[in-house]
Write a structure and sequence with these properties.
With about 220 residues, this protein is mostly helical. Helices cover about 65% and strands about 5% of the residues. Strands 1-2 form a two-stranded antiparallel ribbon. Strands 3-4 form a two-stranded antiparallel sheet.
Length: about 220
Amino acid sequence: MEEDPERLPFWRRFSEGERHWPYALAVAAMIGLQVALPDRYNLGAWWALPGVEVIIVVLLVAANPRRLERRTRALRRLSLMLIAVASLGTAWSVFRLVEELTSGHGAGSAAELLGSGAAIWLINVLTFAVWYWELDRGGAPARAAGTDPYPDFLFPQMTSPGMVPGHWRPQFADYLYLAFTNATAFSPTDTLPLSRWAKLTMMLEAAISLVTAALVIAKAVNALG
C-alpha cells in the first residue's frame, strides 16, 4: 500500500533535486587546498589524488548537469569513490602533520605550521561535509525522491515545519554548517545525529579537529616563544 504524500513529513515529499554547484565548489576548494599544501603532506605525487578527484567530479556533473536527480548504481559508486579518495588524502595529511608535531622534525616555521595546520583543518571540515551530505538518507537524489523514511541527521527545521517554507530540504550548505560547527564545538550543536554511523562519523571528525588544533596551536606558541 502506497503512502499518502499528504501525510508524509514535508521533508520526505518529492522535491526538485539540488543544484550541484555548492557541492562542486566545496570539492574544488578542497582540491585547491590539497594542492597548496607542502609536498610532504601529499600522498604520492602532488597531482595524483587531486587529479582523480577532478575526473570524478567532472563525470558526476556531466551526469547531472543541472540538478542532482538522476540515480544509478554507477553514479552512486562514483560519489562514494570521490569520498574515499578525498578521505584518503585528508587522513594522510593529518597523519603527517601529527607525526611532525609530535616528533619535532620538519615542522617548519611557526607561520608555515599555522598555515598548513589551518589548511588541513579546513580540508577535514570539507571532507566530512561531503560525507554527511552524500550519506544522509542515501544522498541528494534519494532525499529529493523522499525514498528513505529514516533521517540520519535531525535538522531543527524538521521539528519546526511552521518556521520554514514547505519546499525546504537539507542541502549542501546545511551539511557544511554541520561539519564546521562540529569541528569547532567538538560536539553537535543544533543538528543531532540519529544513526550510529552519523554519531561515529561526527565523533571521528571532532577528534581529528581537536587533535589538529591543539597540537598546531601548542607547537606554534612554543615556536613563537
